[in-house]
Design a protein that fits this description.
35% helix; five-stranded mixed β-sheet; 447 residues; 11 helices; elongated; single chain; alpha+beta
Length: 447
């Protein structure tokens, strides 16, 4: 049986499909779209895309028009003569060789120009940021500022930033869609990427990802970018450069009015350092004199500044950390309200944590295997951007990280649990739920 061609039914289906595509296009701003000129890099790539799309559309329309014309004009008819053959027609062959060549020139020139521009070296005064990929989290270092942080990147609007991209294990790929650019982190090689966030970008948060498959938790290797005003960045950097000060202390009595300096917090350990320095220069001092001099020379701690939480909740509705806890992990959450930060510091300093993490200002804790925890209390996420940084999720993470994140290099620390890698039960050195609650209180106090 021969089917009947029904143009109305075909037209209805085509109209329905076009309507569906049109509605999808009106779905609002896509949070990970690269078609946003938020940086010079993105603007250049977007302009190149527009040119390629224009010429591609012209070629498509021209080819399809010629095809439709040929189908209609030379379709088979009863008694119609055989169409004239054009094989070997020099004029036509020259035309269909020259026209694509001209089009390719119009495509090649802006493409090569954009490649040279985006691959050029950054400006000498650019902010330097070293990006180190780990399985499965991001480490960010600001060598000019002496700052190391993890999974949360702060950049000042209007200033060029030069990223030095490295990996300590497998291949990764650094990608901030709305800022533009995606560049690989390659073993035994340093790659570079630079861009300048627009001056008028404002205080906003953006998604960042690993875009190169790197293992079982590749999809969980996320980070956040915060673009802030230059003044806000200076505040953030001034605070981040400080060692962690714990516990929070009241300022010491003000120095004499003639000294012209700010009061000094107690418990910072500055007096012994200053005393040793003076003695090394041939100026012996007793402890009382050292304390007086310390109070007259050491500034007070810089106030904490982090991305405003109210702005984060209002504007950053993109990739939200999961709040779901795997059913295989258990923790007595009632203990979190009883956590003691001072006790937690003591437990932390005697645990295996110090073999992997660094907290500036604590000499016993300067490892660099895991994320730097100096100001971890100011961050909004943990576990490579996978979970929110609150007491509940931090406690579960410390107790059984491999169950919270597939393939996590952080071992199981909960006492009595079996570590999935070693297959051994954690007893000696394991942490009870009460121990973990105290450590959580300590880490959250590190603002």
């Amino acid at each position: 049986m021969v089917g009947t061609f029904r143009p109305r039914r075909l037209a209805s289906a085509a109209l329905l499909g076009a309507l569906a595509f049109g509605l999808a296009a009106c779905g609002g701003e896509y949070p990970n779209s690269t078609f946003n000129p938020n940086t010079d890099f993105n603007a250049d790539i977007d302009a190149l895309w527009d040119k390629l799309l224009l010429w591609g559309t012209i070629v498509f329309v021209g080819v399809e028009a010629a095809l439709v014309y040929t189908i209609i004009r030379f379709r088979r008819r009863p008694g119609a003569p055989t169409p004239k053959q054009v094989h070997g027609n020099t004029t036509i062959e020259i035309l269909w060789t020259a026209i694509p060549a001209v089009i390719l020139i119009f495509i090649a020139i802006p493409t090569v120009r954009t490649i040279f521009k985006t691959q050029a070296k950054a400006a000498p005064d650019a902010l330097q940021v070293e990006v180190i990929g780990h399985q499965w989290w991001w480490e960010f270092k600001y060598p000019q500022l002496g700052i190391t942080t993890a999974n949360e990147l702060y950049l000042p609007n209007g200033r060029t930033v030069n990223f030095q991209l490295k990996t300590i294990d497998v291949l990764h790929s650094f990608w901030i869609p709305q800022m533009g650019g995606k560049r690989d982190l390659i073993s035994n090689r340093t790659n570079y990427l630079w861009f300048t966030p627009n001056k008028d970008l404002g205080t906003k948060a953006w998604n960042g990802f690993c875009a190169e498959f790197c293992g079982p938790s590749h999809a969980n290797m996320k980070f956040r970018l915060y673009t802030v005003t230059p003044g806000e960045f200076d505040q953030w950097a001034a605070h981040q450069k400080q060692p962690a000060i714990f516990p929070a202390v009241a300022a010491a009595p003000a120095a004499p009015a003639t000294s012209g300096v700010a009061p000094v917090p107690s418990g910072t350990g500055a007096a012994p350092v200053l005393l040793a320095s003076l003695q090394a220069n041939g100026q012996p001092m007793d402890s009382a004199a050292a304390a007086t001099t310390t109070a007259a020379t050491v500034p007070a701690p810089v106030p904490v500044w982090a991305f405003p939480k109210d702005r984060l909740e209002k504007e950053f509705a993109y990739t939200i950390p999961t709040a779901k806890i795997p059913v295989s992990v258990a923790f007595d959450e009632s203990l979190l309200a009883k956590g003691d930060a001072a006790r937690g510091k003591d437990i932390y300093s005697k645990s295996s944590c110090i073999g992997c993490h660094a907290i500036a200002g604590t000499p016993f804790n300067m490892a660099a295997v895991g994320p730097n925890l100096t100001h971890v209390g100011t961050r909004y996420t943990i576990a490579g951007g996978l979970y929110p940084n609150d007491a509940k999720h931090l406690a579960y993470w410390i107790k059984n990280a491999p169950a919270m994140k597939p393939g996590s290099l952080m071992p199981t620390l909960g006492k009595g649990l079996t570590d999935p890698k070693t297959k051994m039960v954690v007893n000696v050195g394991g942490l009870t739920d009460a121990d973990i609650a105290d450590i959580v209180a300590y880490l959250q106090a590190l603002k």
